[in-house]
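Researcher: Next entry: Peptidyl-prolyl cis-trans isomerase (Deinandra increscens subsp. villosa).
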Amino acid sequence: MARIKPQALLQQSKKKKVPRSISIPTIALYSVVTVVLVFFLFATYRHWSQRPIMQTDEGTSNFQVEGDFPDSKKPDVPRYAIFNTSKGLITAELYKEGSPEIVDEFIDACQKGHFKGMLFQRVVKHFVIQGGNSENHDVIEDWTSREKHYNQLENRLKHEAFMLGTSNTKHDKEEFDIFITTAPIPDLNAKLNVFGRVIKGEDIVQEIEEVDTDEHYRPKSRIGIIDVTLKQKI
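Model: Predicted structure:
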């Protein structure tokens, strides 16, 4: 077999065609196609990835609507109590949010007629009037024993007049008593559970406050509650 000389190989390699280079317009076209393809894939991925979240939000919204629906059927809780007394009407707003358990007990006692015919058995001027059948008078005795010191108290938060409360000692529903303050009282929560405030009939409270009493602060004439009416609106 004849050997090919190096010079002949060199000449043959020179005769081979050099591959064409890729033109700039072709590169630009490929780049645009690639960008469009990537954008399309990203948009598709984003759409399907957010779909479960949208479904979850819709499910939550439906659940909240269903949960709120029964509340519209619940009976309205009374917000006001109107005391019909032998001196006139006293309207009190009930603090359901601040004292829910006490308000519930009070409403239950009203519905059972507990306050019908109840007398105001203690009347202390510039302090409180008390109505009830309880014989526990610790609240009254404690306040009256400190009366001479009240003007010497430092300036501090005091409960306002015409607050509605009951004694914070444990008692049966048959012994649910009523206190209405007639002046700002320091440390009111130490003795009373406040569950409302008189918003109308303050003059009636003051008229009861001015009745004559004996040395034990018991009214000399019979003054009491005829009945109590509960209302949602006034």
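Model: Note for the record: The radius of gyration is 43 Å.
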